[in-house]
Amino acid sequence: MRRRVLLWSAVKVKSFLGPSEITDLEAALGQFILYEKALRRQEVGRTLWLAIPSHVWSGLFREAIGEMLLEDGALRLLVIDAEKETIERWIPSTPGET
After folding, report:
1. Whole-structure pTM value
2. Is residue 97 part of a domain?
């Protein structure tokens, strides 16, 4: 099941290397919205995920602003360990789980 989900998914990776994580988040969200709308028109059925480093998940997304962004489930995140090149978690949930 997971392999099928990945085949029908697209991932936008953001490194958050700028001087301000908030500025990087603004850019990432703008790109996510733009790419998601374009993807819906051109490739119906594909799902866009925003990949973020684990330090951004444990920092910015644990603050009020991050929690607010996740409230409605519209933002789909892959929390990644860039050094190990692994996915640590899927937000809102791991595909295939109930």
Report:
1. 0.76
2. no
